[in-house]
Amino acid sequence: MILVTGSSGHLGDALMRTFRAEGVPARGIDINVSPYTDIVASVDDREAVAAAMAGVTDVLHTATLHKPHVVTHSHQRFVDTNVSGTLALLEAAAAAGVRSFVYTSATSTFGDALSPAYGEPAAWITEDVSPIPKNIYGATKLAAEHLCQIVARNRKLPVLILRTSRFFPEEDDNAGQRSRFSIENLQALELLNRRVDIADIVSAHRLAMEKAPVLGFGKFIISATSPFTQDDLPTLNSDARAVILRHFPQAEVLFAQAGWSFPRALDRVYVNAHARAKLGWAPRHDFAHVLDCLALGSDFRSDLALAIGRKGYHDEIFEDGPFPVE
Question: Which pTM value belongs to this model?
Answer without folding.
Answer: 0.92
